[in-house]
Write a structure and sequence with these properties.
- The complex is a heterotrimer of chains A (about 260), B (about 325) and C (about 270).
- Chain A is mainly α and about 260 residues long.
- Chain A has one domain.
- Chain A is built from eleven helices and no strands.
- With about 325 residues, chain B is α/β, with parallel strands linked by helices.
- Chain B has two domains: about 1-5 and about 40-245, Rossmann fold, CATH 3.40.50.300; about 250-310, Alpha-Beta Plaits, CATH 3.30.70.
- Helices cover about 35% and strands about 30% of the residues of chain B.
- Chain B is globular, with a radius of gyration of 25 Å.
- The chains are: A mainly alpha (about 260), B alpha/beta (about 325), C mainly alpha (about 270).
- Chains in contact: A-B, A-C, B-C.
């Protein structure tokens, strides 16, 4: 356990953001928030009833989706792909920590760094410039925070599985784009799931991706509250466990393949 | 002919500060620091010379070679390659130089070697007759025909290096830069490449600057060695001179008729004793092998003996270690 | 060997290289089609709920998206590897461009092709044909000519913007995040007609990062949505000019980048 936190700390301190890159990213966050804000506001002015929620809630949902993207964007699959391609994966496999946990520790460290350096300023931009509302009560905030932790867990494993897959297929690019757009779509990051037509809605409910954005953000804007919120957390936990088990299984198969076939 | 005078290159880097808070501060107000990669070096290489260019990592070798290729602009000093200033006339200079990088191939990865060579033929405007002539040469000396139709990604490291050599010499450059070309190559293939380089250097009078960490390469190929450390040339001369100047110690290995107790001859020191053999180190300026042998044989009957010269590697290490801050050692 | 001949010579080898990887071809094509289907799906969901977006109907939105995609597919096929510039710098590949008696720029952009652009092209052409029919469009000669120009302009706009961002890596070492985010911005803007956004945003995507000229402004002209009474009606015709301007600016940026590289190294 101690080793785990050591790796996390290492990733946290080792992360850097170049000056220009940092300001660029904030600028682009601003742009994204701006576009979401306008799309929803225009549509709301057109047909107020069609949303099912208030404009404030809708806008908050959208803006939050942009702020959270920055902080959840610490998937390990690029790292895994590069390590495999260059052959450096061997050094990782020799570290005194099980690979899966090692990647988790790394991502956790990077995530916390992003949280402080990028997500907080993004959140501030959303709050001061775009009408991002605060949850208002402690319960919601707490539930939201807990939900975010599970969200990170789920997203991490989705990315980890993709990384494991690329060990076999080697060309990640095309898969990666399609994969993430699917994830983004069914996670309700931009278009919330309650706006989906029935069939798509049903599909999204059986997939794990809703756990990444839809659940924590719905808790935040209180469309999921009380018992429903706890149930949703349960869904997240369920998927987190399933994905952990699946990832460990998948990696053991991939690991076997790696050590037998070589680099 | 390469001429370099008082060549200097400085780099400015943003100072990276440690930890989380440091990172944040770097974002708001960055601090710069200047590194001097190449510090006032001067040398002259005549046509047809095969010069070994050695130094620890980060000593300034790559930087100086990049300046000779015209990739980097010097901070100050004069630099001329066959009368051209490389960074000012990059494209003209490009026609007279060739380079082989051990770490990275310059061939296209997925297509047969010959396709890359044809592409270079077109880029450098090599006349067809010359192209064919060179291909024949490479077939003879490098067995190019054995793998010319194989994509580079399927080649062994030795084959890849041979292909890279062919590519570098396809346009008959006057000057060849070899940046650790033997790295990771097996012993047999290495010897092959060395023979090739020596032949090219001799037959076509191609001037070559050869960076390596392997002293055997230096001993076998180079008549002249430049050692660069911390951006300065700390030695520039022939191998023999280097041995003379720095290789003061010799080792005398004596095998006696029978086991004798350890002893110390005058002007020498005993470093190792194993069975009937003893190793003595002496400074050849203080005493000569014959004097030492005469003394020892007068004491005990000798069966066999040998005089060992210091390894180049050991000499070079001495030179590196001697250069922590000293300005002495320049020899040209 | 002049620049054009060199470029085609390089492309020939690049295509040869790609053809070695036939297995990935199919998965790649499928991946790209999935991506585009999802994108259009998002539009579809919104429009089915709201029937139109600020006066843009479903097929008009499809036209808008596919017009962008068509220009993008050209960029994607020929110039996708621009994003890899930062890798070339780190790995020493860029140095190799500088020791040849040829333009490093041509050597760089002629280095690779990506077959995925073909998938985008197929999708875009299909989408545009369907939209053309469903909207009952009947273009005259001028409009067809303009359509052709708009596609080329779109490709140039995306290429030049992408190249300028990639050149960041000469100064900061890493530009990938910034280019990823530009892609995201691009996507947001190319789904939705720019007129739904506020004034500031419209100014930014028109004057600062002119991605709106990839599809929005040409679409206004081609779909007969131009409001000739407005002061800005002529923007509908401006995409080729904007493209040329960007080419000029990017040439300057590249020049500065090379100067920077030769003084600051890798």
């Amino acid at each position: 356990m101690k080793i785990f936190w050591a790796f996390t700390r290492q990733a946290f301190h080792g992360s850097t953001v170049y000056r220009f890159e940092f300001w660029m990213r904030l600028f682009f966050v601003y742009m994204l928030m701006y576009s979401i804000y306008w799309v929803w506001t225009t549509l709301y002015t057109q047909t107020p009833g069609a949303f099912g929620v208030s404009l404030e809630q809708m806008v908050t949902y959208g803006i939050l989706g942009m702020a959270l993207e920055i902080f959840l964007d610490v998937g390990p699959e690029w790292y895994i792909t590069t390590q495999v391609r260059t052959g450096a994966i061997d050094t990782d496999l020799m570290k005194p920590l099980d690979f899966h946990l090692h990647m988790l520790a790394r991502s956790a460290g990077e995530m916390m760094f992003s949280l402080g350096v990028l997500a907080l300023p993004s959140f501030a931009i959303g709050y001061y410039l775009f009408d991002l509302r605060l949850p208002g009560d402690m319960t919601t905030s707490l539930l939201f925070a807990v939900s975010l932790i599970f969200s990170f867990f789920v997203f991490f494993h989705i990315s980890f599985l993709l990384g494991a897959l690329t060990v076999i297929t080697l060309d990640i690019r095309s898969i990666s784009w399609a994969y993430y757009s699917l994830v983004s779509f069914f996670s309700g990051q931009i278009v919330p799931l309650w706006l989906f037509p029935d069939l798509l809605r049903k599909i999204s409910e059986v997939l794990p991706f809703q756990a990444i954005y839809y659940i924590p953000m719905s808790i935040y804007i209180k469309t999921l509250s009380g018992g429903a919120a706890l149930q949703a957390l349960g869904v997240q936990v369920f998927w987190a466990i399933v994905l952990v088990l699946f990832s460990r299984w998948a990696w053991s198969r991939v690991h076997a393949r790696l050590t037998i076939q070589g680099g | 002919m390469i001429q370099v005078e008082h060549l200097t290159k400085d780099y400015q880097r943003v100072k990276r500060r440690e930890g989380f808070l440091g990172g944040v501060r770097t974002l708001i107000s960055p601090q710069y620091e200047t590194t001097r990669a190449v510090d006032d070096i001067s040398f002259r290489i005549e046509e047809g010379e095969l010069v070994g260019y050695i130094g620890p990592n980060g000593a300034g070798k790559s930087t100086s070679i990049k300046m000779l290729c015209g990739i980097l602009v010097p901070t100050s000093g004069k630099i001329e390659v066959n009368g051209l200033v490389p960074h000012k006339e990059r494209m003209v200079n490009a026609r007279q130089i060739g380079a082989v990088f051990g770490q990275k191939t310059q061939l296209w990865w997925d297509v047969p070697v010959i396709e890359s060579l044809r592409l270079f033929r077109d880029i450098y405007n090599v006349p067809e007759a010359q192209f064919k002539r060179n291909l024949n040469l490479f077939n003879d000396l490098l067995d190019l025909h054995e793998f010319q139709n194989t994509p580079v990604r399927q080649l062994s490291l030795g084959q890849r290096m041979r292909a890279d050599m062919a590519a570098a010499l396809l346009h008959n450059p006057r000057i060849l830069f070899l940046d650790e070309p033997m790295i990771g190559v097996d012993v047999v293939a290495k010897e092959r490449l060395r023979v090739f380089i020596k032949e090219i250097n001799r037959d076509q009078k191609v001037t070559a600057l050869f960076t390596t960490h392997d002293m055997v390469d230096i001993e076998k190929l180079c008549s002249r060695v430049m050692i660069i450390d911390h951006g300065r040339v700390v030695y520039d001369g022939s191998l023999d001179q280097m041995r003379t100047q720095y290789g003061k110690d010799r080792t005398l290995v004596v095998e006696f008729e029978e086991n004798i107790p350890d002893f110390v001859p005058p002007h020498a020191a005993l470093v190792k004793s194993e069975g009937r053999k003893k190793w003595f180190i002496f400074n050849r300026f203080e005493t000569s092998p014959s004097t030492l042998i005469a003394y020892i044989s007068s004491q005990f009957p000798i069966v066999d003996l040998a005089v060992e010269e210091p390894e180049i590697e050991k000499i070079v290490r001495t030179i590196y270690q001697g250069n922590t801050g000293e300005t002495e050692g320049k020899h040209a | 060997m002049n620049a054009i001949t060199l470029y085609f010579r390089l492309i020939r080898v690049a295509v040869q290289s790609r053809l070695q990887y036939r297995a990935d071809f199919l998965t790649g094509i499928i991946g790209v089609i999935v991506l585009n289907v999802i994108n259009v799906g998002l539009i579809g969901i919104l429009v089915s709920r709201f029937r139109h977006l600020n006066g843009w109907t479903l097929w008009e939105m499809v036209f808008l998206y596919c017009l962008w995609l068509l220009g993008h597919s050209v960029y994607s096929f020929f110039f996708w590897h621009i994003r890899a510039l930062e890798d070339y710098l780190v790995e020493g590949t860029f140095d190799q461009f500088l020791i040849r008696p040829a333009s490093p720029f041509v050597l760089f952009i002629g280095r690779e092709v990506q077959y995925l652009g073909v998938a985008d092209l197929i999708f875009a052409v299909s989408g545009l044909s369907l939209a053309y029919r469903n909207l009952d469009l009947q273009w005259n000669g001028t409009q067809w000519l303009f359509f052709g120009l708009a596609i080329i302009a779109g490709a140039l706009i995306e290429t030049t913007l992408s190249l300028m961002i990639a050149c960041l890596s000469f100064w900061t070492g890493r530009a990938r995040r910034a280019s990823n985010l530009l892609i995201q911005i691009n996507m947001m803007v190319q789904f939705y007609p720019v007129d739904i956004f506020g004034y500031t945003f419209r100014v930014i995507v028109t004057g600062l990062i002119p991605v709106a000229f990839m599809n929005y402004y040409p679409a206004l002209m081609l779909l007969d949505k131009l409001d000739y009474s407005s002061a800005w009606w002529w923007l509908g015709y401006m995409s080729p000019i904007v493209a040329l301007l960007l080419v000029g600016i990017t040439a300057g940026v590249w020049h500065l980048a090379l100067r920077r590289y030769s003084s600051a190294g890798g």
